[in-house]
Amino acid sequence: MPADPLSAAGLATPYQLTGAGGMTAAASGCTTANSANLGAFVQATILDPATGALSVYSPLVITQGTAPAAAPVVPALPANAVVTIDFGFNGTNLTQVGATPAALQQGNCADNLNGSLFGQVSFCNGAAFFQAVATAEAAGLLQVPALGVSPKTGQPCPTTRSFTMIDQDQSDNVTTTYLLTATGQTAQFNPANVAALPAATTIVNGSDNKLLAAFLDPTLGCTPFTAPDLSQAGAAGPSQALNEIQAQAQAAPVALVPENDEMTLVNNAFSADKTNLYRSNVGQPAISAANDAASSPANYCQNMANIQTAFLNANQALLATGASPVPAVGTNLLTFLANRELMSFTNLNCANFGLTNPVTVTLDANGVATAATFNTTQQTATNPGATAAPPTTPATTPATAPPVRGHRIGRHHHGLMNPSGA
């Protein structure tokens, strides 16, 4: 991570990806050329506290020892800009390392609680950013677009806090896109670089935010919250932080990062402190009796099983018209989402709360979900005091997806090339 990461110079200085424990990028596989498995992505969201204006910017990640395929754009930041930086990884554990001894402190960065990593994600200055956003909203400077109603379903458009679309580790990863050349060099995705690098391919970070903005919203006829992207000549672009800002309008029940999210466990046990640290960096309130009514481990599982299953079942025909984020996971958006819910139920250990997995998928010879059935019988969680435990592995049959962790679009580490999706 560059020095002064929240400054314009810091944002425009490439991050360097390499292996852990002194391993080189090549030896560890942590290279941008291996982006599908071990690619890292960075995204900044910027608030002008004087006007309430928001913008986004995608700092570039390069493989350590290489040079960018094109020099990053240096963003023009407003005076006293409040910046948050979100990180996403297509592997399992991404650790922040400062280029200078003060870099992480300068950025107010967090990737762990007392040495317990979040894993794929980390943050810089998230809590301060969302507090500044709240101040701007209260002053009438920032007006967040209404969620709107889907013209296809007649229901409110989903958010990253909607039980219709959350998974085992909601509110994670970024919408950043980079260009990748045949030599393994990267560049920011913008019109100038696309024109200058016509043979380059695009690489992305599979995320809940990408799923919402690029797949679910278009299928439902909804519009994601966007702001001028300073790395794309001001073209409108989404971001993880923008999604969370708009998700503050989510009607009850509100899905908040639960204690049984794998990213917030400590030694495989629930941790209120780690969960609250994660929540603070994505603009979510700390654990309380009030929000535990929806998002305690047991209630989170119950709401996912009841609300998401009903949503998928009621909108099967519509969702089946949507493209699959990962064709190796599901043949279309419906089967992808069904597979994702099935695996999230397992990986959140929802059976510990007396619940039954409501989703069954049919797999073809290649393990791709081709059809799904939904049991919409409403369930009530029991044993609310159950704690975290390793996911149990139910018997696998030809009609049931393997119970492996499916975290995001296009990643292998957590099952089915990241079915979760996002």
Please provide a written account of the structure.
By secondary structure, the protein is an alpha+beta fold. The protein has a domain at 1-295. Helix content is 26%, strand content 14%. It has a five-stranded antiparallel beta sheet with strand order 3-2-5-9-6. β2 and β3 (54-57) form a beta hairpin. α11 (297-314) runs antiparallel to α13 (333-347). The radius of gyration is 20 Å and the shape is globular.
So what's the oligomer here? single chain
Give a quick account of the main beta sheet: strands, pairing sense, barrel closure. Answer: 5 strands, antiparallel
Instruction: Indicate the structural class.
Output: alpha+beta
What is the ordering of alpha helices and beta strands? HEHHEEEEHEEEEHEEHEHEEHHHHHHEE
Low-confidence stretches: 391-422
Mean pLDDT over the residues:
91
Strand content bin? 5-15%
Strand order of the largest sheet: 3-2-5-9-6
What does the radius of gyration come to? 20 Å
Shape field:
globular
- How many β-strands, per DSSP? 16
Amino- and carboxy-terminal Cα gap: 25 Å
Summed up, the helix count is 13
Measured as a percent range, the helix fraction is 25-40%
